[in-house]
Amino acid sequence: MSLQSLCxxxxxxxxxxxxxxxxxxxxxxxxxxxxxxxQKHAAVADPEATLPIEKRVEVPDxxxxxxxxxxxxxxxxxxxxxxxxxxxxxxxxxxxxxRTRASGGMKAHGAVDAELEALREARRAxxxxxxxxxxxxxxxxxxxxxxxxxxxxxxxxxxQACAFAQRYRMFGEPLERSRPQALSAAKAALLAAPKxxxxxxxxxxxxxxxxxAAALAEAQAELEQVVAANxxxxxxxxxxxxxxxxxxxxxxxxxxxxIALEHAPDWMFALAxxxxxxxxxxxxxxxxxxxGAAIELAPECAxxxxxLAMVFKATKQDSQANATQTxxxxxxxxxxxxxxxxxxxxxxxxxYCGV
Length: 355
What we know:
355 residues; mainly alpha; 18 helices
């Protein structure tokens, strides 16, 4: 779908939020609209002045869409999305729409039991860590974002960001397809709840998804900021440990994962990274034990079985390795995921077996 088509979905958008601390010019440049036109709708005398409080601005239907079309913007799939500071126009528009939804307003209310249960149900779907349940989680979180509860909406956007970010890492979906959506949802969550740990986790997962050195360093900084403010954020510690491992910083990875397991002993990613560290130290039985615990928590996760198969292969237990990998491929529900699992297993063959 082209960006022009996507922008057409915003035709019913009639309100923008100018956040406190930003000027009309900053918002206009981000959206690609003339400052003077936005100034007319906002009725603000000085477009350069930062607003002391948030301002809600009514705009005509199609105001943003017409400007985006006139600029002949690129499709979000092929345009550079950047990280937190360099988003393409579709992502900026999408975030602005989510900011409007996440900002609450006069009718905002606290969380009700039905919304909290909806969040739990979406979380359960996410934590099954299969491709199908991931899609379900994204859909469920999306439904929750229409609530007037700012707290619930922020958590829904944060959960959606994490789910989108995992689609490349766990299921082999093209990075350019899932990453912009993850960044958008994470940004919306942070706008609604700047201190929400899960929102920062979603942002870090989205930023670090590509795995290049610069992206990992930025994701690391995002997570270090979170755990400094909230040392009990076990899932953030787990992802920080994973990033340190990918960077080859083994002692730092081990320290982060140890803290993660103190605060989130049942978090699958903490157990999986701990297993990688154990295998790297030659502690095969410990690695198998940790993966067994992770599989018990997420029995539908094919990726864990491939990781276990990699442990078996690395320790010359070929028959168990092949049988476990076969089971993993049977559990995988998409071709992209099967290709990813085969690629991971092949790397183990090359690393430990010289194949």
